[in-house]
């Protein structure tokens, strides 16, 4: 257990706390996360042909992901509010799933990372796809939510295997 890193959100008494990042250097930080929504081929076709009753599923999910990233600190306890410099959400069809793959990138110049913002963006975009298409396919599955890459800060660059 000596090689196990210490959790930073736990104080000496074992209570959850917000980490004090006041002494950390301001650096450029980026995080990339992904999610996917698996669905029936007919549902994917409906979305790609812009025939969903609720409107443009992909455009709406992209906006929802961006908006969610900006509000991550309101959703995840102990997250710092960040002034994000950029959030991009790319949603592309994947006929092998079949479904949609979502990749969210969050950037900030700050004292703490943006992993949670990228993960939140990908997750909320996937939930929005589900919400907008559930009337025709309640069997959709949201999955594969994970961090793909992060850079910046004291811990440097990390990339998923």
UniProtKB/TrEMBL annotation:
The protein's name: Cyclic pyranopterin monophosphate synthase
A Pfam family assignment: MoaC
Protein's pathway: Cofactor biosynthesis; molybdopterin biosynthesis
Segments forming domain Molybdopterin cofactor biosynthesis C (MoaC): 18-153
MF terms (GO), sorted A to Z: cyclic pyranopterin monophosphate synthase activity
Protein species of origin: Siculibacillus lacustris
E.C. code: 4.6.1.17
SUPFAM superfamilies found in the cross-reference section: Molybdenum cofactor biosynthesis protein C, MoaC (SSF55040)
Family to which the UniProt record says this protein belongs: Belongs to the MoaC family.
Summary of the function given for this chain in its UniProt record: Catalyzes the conversion of (8S)-3',8-cyclo-7,8-dihydroguanosine 5'-triphosphate to cyclic pyranopterin monophosphate (cPMP).
Single biological process term from Gene Ontology: Mo-molybdopterin cofactor biosynthetic process
Keyword Amino-acid biosynthesis among record annotations: no
UniProt entry keywords in alphabetical sequence: Lyase, Molybdenum cofactor biosynthesis
Binding residues for substrate: 78-80, 116-117
């Amino acid at each position: 257990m000596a090689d196990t890193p210490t959790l930073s959100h736990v104080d000496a008494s074992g209570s959850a706390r917000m980490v004090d990042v006041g002494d950390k250097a301001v650096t450029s930080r980026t995080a990339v996360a992904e999610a996917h929504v698996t669905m029936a081929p007919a549902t994917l076709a409906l979305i790609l042909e812009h025939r969903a009753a609720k409107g443009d599923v992909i455009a709406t999910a992209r906006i929802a992901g961006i908006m969610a990233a900006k509000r991550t600190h309101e959703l995840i306890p102990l997250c710092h509010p960040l002034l994000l410099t950029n959030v991009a959400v790319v949603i592309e069809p994947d006929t092998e799933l079949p479904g949609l793959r979502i990749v969210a990138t969050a950037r900030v110049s700050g004292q703490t990372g943006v992993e949670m913002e990228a993960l939140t963006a990908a997750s909320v975009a996937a939930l929005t796809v589900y919400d907008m298409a559930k009337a025709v396919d309640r069997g959709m599955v949201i999955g594969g939510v994970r961090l793909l890459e992060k850079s910046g800060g004291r811990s440097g660059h990390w990339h998923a295997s």
